[in-house]
Amino acid sequence: MSVAKVTEIIASSNKSFDHAVEKGIKRASKTLKHVKGAWVESMKVTVKDGKIDDWRVVLKVTFVLKD
């Protein structure tokens, strides 16, 4: 039996939502051991001069706690 924990992180990209998710998971995996999954809770963009400036995601990252 295992026990998991969920933590929330925010990641951003100047390319796309997909890139923001990839960056967030990559960064979370450096700090959190045994990352098993994640889901996108929300997405938003910032706009500058009428164009998308930044794509942002709020991720819920699941990782397994070890004994």
How are the strands ordered across the major sheet? 1-3-2
What share of the residues does DSSP label as strand, in percent? over 45%
Q: Give the number of helices.
A: 1
Structural class: alpha+beta
- Unreliable stretches covering 5 or more consecutive residues: none
**N-to-C span:** 11 Å
Mean pLDDT: 96
Number of strands: 3
Short description:
With 67 residues, this protein is α+β, with helices and mostly antiparallel strands. It has one helix and three strands; from the N terminus they run βαββ. Strands 1-3-2 form a three-stranded antiparallel beta sheet, with helices on one face.
Fold and architecture overview:
This protein is of the alpha+beta class and 67 residues long. The protein is built from 1 helix and 3 strands; from the N terminus they run E-H-E-E. The protein has one helix at residues 17-31, and strands spanning 3-13, 35-48, 51-65. Strands 1-3-2 form a 3-stranded antiparallel β-sheet, covered by helices on one side. A hairpin with a 2-residue loop joins strand 2 and strand 3. The chain is elongated.
